[in-house]
Amino acid sequence: MRGGAGVGLGGCALALAGAAVAPLAWAPQAAVSVRGGFEGHARDLSVLYVDLPLVVLGGALLPLGVWALGLRWVGRPWVVAVAAVAALGLGVWGLTEWWSPRRPPDPGYGPGI
After folding, report:
1. What residues contact 60, with CB distance under 8 A and at least 6 apart?
2. CA-CA distance, 59 to 51, in Å (whole number)?
3. Burial class of residue 15, CB neighbours in 10 A (0-12, 13-18, 19+)
4. Residues 95 and 26 sit within 8 Å (Cβ to Cβ)
5. Residue 109 — pLDDT band, cuts 50, 70, 90?
6. Are the C-beta atoms of 34 and 48 separated by less than 8 Å?
7. Is 80 exposed, middle or buried (CB count within 10 Å of its CB: 0-12, 13-18, 19+)?
8. E strands of the chain, at which residues?
9. What are phi and psi of 77, to 5 degrees?
């Protein structure tokens, strides 16, 4: 393996950073489902046991996958690190643009008088 232990630690650091950043970007949108509306109406806790693990896993595996493939094809760790961070940024942006929690209307709130 080229680079020794430092290269392996770089991949682990990117995976750890991705696993931390992805849920932090996802959490504000998921808060609506966790808290629910008026008096807890439309609370959907499945975002905690279905979506949250998938977001953490995707946040960890995306930069790690780019890191591993980049080291195999490019070989320069600093170029691969930039590509992995860019992939994580695009992945988080895609997550916040694509994923939106279910938001049914609260009961009793209509168009008004």
Report:
1. 15, 16, 18, 19, 22
2. 12
3. buried
4. yes
5. low
6. yes
7. buried
8. none
9. -60, -35
- pTM (two decimals): 0.75
More confident residue, 13 or 99: 13
In order of 1, 11, 34, 96, 99, the CA distances from 37 in angstroms are 53, 41, 9, 21, 19
* Dihedral class, residue 112 (left if φ above 0, else alpha if ψ from -120 to 50, else beta): left
Q: Give the pLDDT confidence of 77-98 residue by residue, as tens digits.
A: 889 999 999 999 999 998 888 8
Which residue ranges make up each domain of the chain?
9-98
Which tens digit of pLDDT belongs to each residue from 1-49?
Answer: 456 667 778 888 999 999 999 999 988 888 878 877 667 677 788 888 9
Nearest Cα neighbor of 62 from 12, 9, 18 is 18
